[in-house]
Structure formats: structure tokens, C-alpha cells
From TrEMBL:
Classification via Pfam families: Lactamase_B_2
Metallo-beta-lactamase domain mapped to chain residues: 5-200
Listed Gene3D superfamilies: Ribonuclease Z/Hydroxyacylglutathione hydrolase-like
Coiled coil: none
Gene Ontology MF annotations: N-acylphosphatidylethanolamine-specific phospholipase D activity; zinc ion binding
GO CC terms: cytoplasm
Protein name as catalogued: Metallo-beta-lactamase domain-containing protein
Length: 255
């Protein structure tokens, strides 16, 4: 965006503290190897859960990236992994920071944080708004559905594109994630011109088939008239030229 390359919530390994393959296993390989990443202008982190923040990735990037933008409290973790304090930019809800021409603002979300059993909610979680040259992008991070989404939409006057999480919801966790139908409603609440689903198709975080959330999201978006773009992992995405090809419906991917 505006000439800046931002990597958001990078995880190149598994998403659990013990690196045990049966806990939140990864079933989609990253489309690029960590050592092959291009020059990055910033790393943006939404919170400290293992499927969003990986120690080995941060250690590798610590001396290669000049800016690490995080919610409050996450900076201490980054420092312990080798990121110099002067590279860390912590934001509370409503706080903003400039990256070139981009204004990044941490916004509200309904979630929680922890890396272990003794540190629950010791750090903040956030969604993010990116604004530059008259364009606005929303990144949901992890959040459940709530009135905060419509409030954000009203505050910013809508978005050109909303990246919204669609997976890992569970009736027993009502304040942590959105069901697919809620995610589409969130895009409407945000007054987004287009929606791109995130937080699905990489880790096994629930009991349902990995493709259930995208099937439901596509169906719901069609019913509600929401433009939903679903690029394949690693595919270059240009909203004005994008065409869905239903790649996730391939039989070999649904075994």
C-alpha cells in the first residue's frame, strides 16, 4: 500500500507452544519461505496468540525489518526475541502511527490474549485501519461480532476493502471469533466495498472441515450482495482485476 510492504501476523511454522503436530496442526504450507521474503517496511501484529505471533519468525526478522507495530504489551515479547526497543511501536485502541504515507490506527476488537496459562489478557489485541491517498483498508485481526464493527465503519466512513476473519468460531467461545455469517454482516456493518476472508485454510483450529467456513461465507455473501474475493494463498491480489475461480472446491483439496 502506497509503496510500503507490510507483513501481518507472520507464522511460518506450527501454531502451538510445544510445536506438537496434533495441536492446531498446519495443513497448508506457506507460499514463500521465510528466507525468501522480499524487503519489508514493517511487521504488523494484531495480538500474541500462537497462530498470529511466532517466536522463530520474529527472531529471524529482528535485524531485517525496521518497524514492528503492535498492540500494547506485545513489545516486551518482541524484545525478548531480539527486536531492539527502538524498532517497536506499541499502540492502544485509537492510537495512530505513520508508515510513509500510510496512517495505521489500532481499533477495537473483542478477543483475548495469552501465550500460556498464567498471562491471560496481560497484552492488548486489536484490529487495524490503514489509510493512504484516499483509500481505507480494515484488518479485523481476531474478533467476535459486535457493535464495535458498525462503530468503526461509521467512524471512518466505510472502507475500500475489509479483511475479515471467518473461521474458528465456536458456540462455546462467544466472545472470541465470528461465524461466517457474522463475518459477512461485519463487512456490511463496516460499509466495505469488498471483503476478503482471512483466518482460515492454514491451521486446524476447530472441529469442522477447513472449507466449511469459506463455503458458508461465499453463500452468505452472494445472498446479501457483498463482493467477496477469495484469492489463493500466494496469489497476487489486485481488487480491480480479481476474478474468483473457486479454487477451494477442488476435490483433491477436500480429502
Amino acid at each position: 500500500m502506497s509503496g510500503q510492504r507490510i507483513l501481518i501476523d507472520p507464522v511460518f511454522g506450527n501454531a502451538n507452544p510445544l510445536d506438537f503436530p496434533l495441536i492446531a496442526p498446519r495443513f497448508q504450507e506457506a507460499p514463500i519461505q521465510l528466507q525468501n521474503l522480499p524487503k519489508l517496511d514493517a511487521v504488523l501484529l494484531t495480538h500474541d496468540h500462537y497462530d498470529h505471533l511466532e517466536a522463530d519468525t520474529i527472531r529471524y526478522l529482528a535485524d531485517k525489518v525496521d518497524r514492528f507495530i503492535t498492540p500494547l504489551g506485545v513489545g516486551a515479547r518482541l524484545q525478548s526475541w531480539g527486536v531492539p526497543v527502538e524498532k517497536i511501536n506499541e499502540l492502544g485502541w485509537g492510537d495512530s502511527s505513520m508508515l510513509g504515507e500510510i496512517k495505521l490506527t489500532a481499533e477495537t476488537a473483542q478477543h483475548y490474549t495469552s501465550r500460556w496459562t498464567t498471562d491471560r489478557n496481560k497484552t492488548l489485541w486489536a484490529s487495524f485501519v490503514l489509510e493512504a491517498n484516499g483509500q481505507r483498508i480494515f484488518w479485523s485481526g481476531d474478533t467476535s461480532y459486535g457493535k464495535h464493527l458498525a462503530e468503526i465503519g461509521q467512524k471512518y466512513g466505510g472502507f475500500d476493502l475489509a479483511f475479515v476473519e471467518i473461521d474458528a468460531a465456536n458456540a462455546g467461545w462467544p466472545k472470541t471469533h465470528m461465524f461466517s455469517e457474522q463475518a459477512v454482516q461485519a463487512a456490511q456493518d463496516l460499509n466495505a466495498k469488498r471483503m476478503l476472508p482471512i483466518h482460515w485454510g492454514v491451521f486446524s483450529l476447530g472441529r469442522n472441515p477447513w472449507y466449511q467456513s469459506i463455503d458458508t461465507s461465499v453463500k452468505t455473501a452472494a445472498e446479501k450482495g457483498v463482493i467477496l474475493d477469495v484469492p489463493k494463498m500466494g496469489e497476487k491480489y489486485q481488487p480491480e482485476h480479481f476474478q474468483n475461480n473457486q479454487w477451494w472446491q477442488a476435490p483433491e483439496l477436500r480429502r
